[in-house]
Amino acid sequence: MRQQFQLPGAHSSAIDRRLSALVRHLGDSSASSMESQNPNQTIYASVTASFNGDSVFSNIVRAPEDPILGVTVAFNKDPSPIKLNLGVGAYRTEEGKPLVLNVVRRAEQLIVNDRSRVKEYLPITGLADFNKFSAKLIFGADSPAIQGNRVATVQCLSGTGSLRVGAEFLARHYHQRLIYIPLPTWGNHPKIFATAGLSVKTYRYYDPATRGLNFQGLLEDLGSAPSGAVVLLHACAHNPTGVDPTLEQWEQIRQLMRSKGLLPFFDSAYQGFASGSLDADAQPVRMFVADGGECLAAQSYAKNMGLYGERVGALSIVCKTTDVASRVESQLKLVIRPMYSSPPIHGASIVATILKDRDMYNEWTVELKAMADRIISMRKQLFDALRARGTPGDWSHIIKQIGMFTFTGLNSEQVAFMTNEYHIYMTSDGRISMAGLSSKTVPHLVDAIHAAVTRVV
Ligand code: KET
């Protein structure tokens, strides 16, 4: 015991410090005996410092706000009555209010009224029904991988948690530590993968000149990626650009990736939000599963079921055989247990209740389609209003792009101007959340964009 744990010196690593704390906690006598020999090199030194005045944390540097969630922080501080938050990708009604789907309220009612439900811990992997139906939702009920029992699915903390668990798993068990993410991509992607210990590189995705896909650049970059590298793909409704490959382009991407042994990791945060159809939006993922190859998929129910704060999602790893899938699942449990032990029960119960019941499922698809349609109608209204106003520029990308966001092409100075002068909040890369817009607020946004492009260059 004494040899296993070393007390930290003044510049010891975080791991040393954690081990040392463990020693103290376990009451190992070596800890106190070493402390008395050299008091400056013990974990007690910092505690003493705090008694003498300064905070033990006084050297901590203030971190910047998150580039996306920080927009909401700034928005909340603004007292202006005309302020508009087009930052975070969260759906709002025509009245600008958050929406809880009717079907979600109905499912919650059933859950609350069911006295047989208890609050016991879920298994490490989460709610079994939730996992089963989540896999069916993304891969399709008739998926060869599901029928062949080759999918390991674990419930995770929404899309972010699913990506992170997948990243940790890959960092521990996959031979290739390199992941390619699109340029640009959701701002949290590089942080999630780098924090898990993977090396992150980008592949060309968006062409600012055409405001469309840089397909040639994408093929070249993936074509020169080392064999086995992981490739992060947005399943649909690419964030922030709103630009997706066509199905023919997906097929070319699939062939290239399979021929080079690149491992696909799908991020599916917007299933149903691109086209309004859950099945259509899952097509790219299903193409990769249909060829019998392996892949990972992270699902989020934040947007498509409006369960943002419930933190409900799933990670699925499609394997070649049942045996591999069950070994993968056993290792996923070892990733999850020390992180948060097991996932929360409420949100997953809502999702499972809805996915299991044909009636509720149908009700969900209708509500989901209505959200997607409202976003599409906002695109049309914004585009028409900019045209009618004669705002310089070609704004057709607003109606060509899909999903929650429009990548406007406005630069960071123009965005800052719109925030300062018009109280319109959006991410500095010029992304606006179409789901935050309504018929009533379109004219205000058009005024702001018009002023920005004519006055700020
Ligand atoms: N993937 C993508 C592509 C994504 O846009 C988000 C969230 C997530 C995963 C994670 O969502 P979760 O809530 O963990 O299920 N994007 C919006 C919110 C955020 O940044 O957290 C956004 O881009 O505004």
Automatic annotation (TrEMBL):
Catalytic activity, as annotated: L-aspartate + 2-oxoglutarate = oxaloacetate + L-glutamate
Keyword presence, Transport: no
Enzyme class: transferase
Record-listed E.C. numbers: 2.6.1.1
SUPFAM superfamilies cross-referenced by the UniProt entry: PLP-dependent transferases
CDD domains from the UniProt entry: AAT_like (cd00609)
Cofactor: pyridoxal 5'-phosphate
Entry keyword annotation includes ATP-binding: no
Further facts: In eukaryotes there are cytoplasmic, mitochondrial and chloroplastic isozymes.
Subunit structure: Homodimer.
Protein name per UniProt: Aspartate aminotransferase
Provenance organism: Tetracentron sinense (Spur-leaf)
Origin organism lineage: Eukaryota, Viridiplantae, Streptophyta, Embryophyta, Tracheophyta
